[in-house]
Amino acid sequence: MAAPARRYACQECGATSTKWAGRCEACGAWNSILEEIPREPAPRGLGRRAGRRLELVAMQGTDPEPPRLTTGIAEFDRAVGGGLVRGSAVLISGDPGIGKSTLALQAAAGLAGAGMACIFISGEESVEQVRLRARRLGLAEAAVRLAAATSVRDILTSLDDPGGAEVVVIDSIQTMYVDSLDSAPGTVAQVRTSAHELIHFAKRRGTVLLLVGHVTKEGLIAGPRVLEHMVDTVLYFEGERSHQFRILRAVKNRYGATDEIGVFAMTDRGLDEVPNPSALFLGERDRDECGAAVFAGIEGSRPMLVEIQALVAPSPLATPRRAVVGWDSGRLAMVMAVLDARCGLALGGNDVYLNVAGGLRIFEPAADAAVAAALISSVTGVPLPATTVVFGEIGLSGEVRQVSQTDLRLKEAAKLGFTKALMPRRRRADESNRAAPLAVHEIARLRDLVALLGDGS
Ligand code: TYD
Ligand code: MG
């Protein structure tokens, strides 16, 4: 018979192929392809033997809602959909140094404080280092049991005693290895197999598994991407290094809504919850400033006001600079193209800088109008009043389109002392209950916004 087919996997994107190449065809990464050694030969005669007959059941079951284990850290519990579910696997991924270990340790301590048996396994730090961190966070008394280990076999053996852990934290999955594979820890094969064994254990025992995963740019360590389909919940822990704010964002959740976020502030004593993020992202705003607009956004189920800042300046370069922090640069290009083509406001020869204050990343198209307002204001030198919020999606023909949850946005703005909203035209159905909590100025077309900010009103 033929020898078992060789299999190669890209350590960057996880794509597999049957031959080695210097460059991955799927993601274009160089030197990222390694051979995967199969664990056992493919089973022979598969298909000859009949499988077990499955029992088909009705959609409507009698199972109650799964109980939630809460950490007591409200922003964490919110991001995971109201608490952790037994037998679920949660991946916390983010850049190195962003604060994942700190968050995981604080969550474990919170769960232990609520009476859950918690185990924290560190593959990156020694027990002493974890203790030191716990002391710094004021968690030295927490009833979390610690171990420094990287062998999945050892970990599973240790966890296997009855009455063992209800919650297990693995920091990080890239340091774990199974000894049945030849490849080094951190390769796709190791990360995938280690995670698979740990998740299998968690499902069987009803344990909550918190996996920490680093996002990396080099090909040597497999990114958490290869795990995303294996776990129940994927959380991104993100933020600008230079800012103190951190966002925990659920991008996948089998037990709750995605796009729900938890907001934290980094302090020297660990992560603090930020229950009212709008006030924080707005910072100090007491004057009307050119090139700034407050966007009334929605993150998950929560309204959030953020300041968007733009700077448009004549460029000495042949190819003007475009620098975007916290927003999509493709989207910025679109808004600028619409300003040019539909409103006659050409920014082509200028450097354009766009910044979302506070280190938040915005994904909503509803921010288009606020970005446009900040750009226009920077060009014309006419400031938006500091008490005005802006939102609305911009279409290619220059129209300002409806966005969802208008009322929630307006209410939050009013609560924080804003008096006016520049927003898309509302639907007729909405107009019947037009008890807007602040003055509404409807903008049908982007041109109207340019006119408004051009004549100083
Ligand atoms: P750490 O949790 O180790 O990051 P990761 O596990 O994602 O690599 O945090 C990185 C550094 O930041 C560490 O030296 C501790 C420090 N830190 C604080 O001082 N306060 C905080 O609130 C957080 C989250 C981190
Ligand atoms: Mg860490």
Task: Provide a concise account of the structure shown.
With 457 residues, this protein is an alpha/beta fold. The protein contains eleven helices and 23 strands. The protein has a nine-stranded mixed beta sheet.
Please describe the topology of this protein.
Elements: E1 7-10, E2 16-17, E3 33-36, E4 68-69, H1 74-79, E5 84-85, E6 89-94, H2 100-113, E7 118-122, H3 127-136, E8 144-148, H4 152-159, E9 167-171, H5 188-205, E10 208-214, E11 233-238, E12 245-253, E13 261-267, E14 270-273, H6 277-282, E15 292-299, E16 302-314, E17 322-325, H7 329-343, E18 350-356, H8 368-380, E19 388-390, E20 393-394, E21 400-401, H9 406-415, E22 420-423, H10 428-432, E23 439-442, H11 446-454
Parallel strand pairs: 6-10, 6-11, 7-8, 7-9, 9-10, 15-19, 17-18, 19-22, 22-23
Antiparallel strand pairs: 1-2, 1-3, 4-5, 11-12, 12-13, 13-14, 15-16, 16-18, 20-21
Helix pairs in contact: 7-8, 8-11
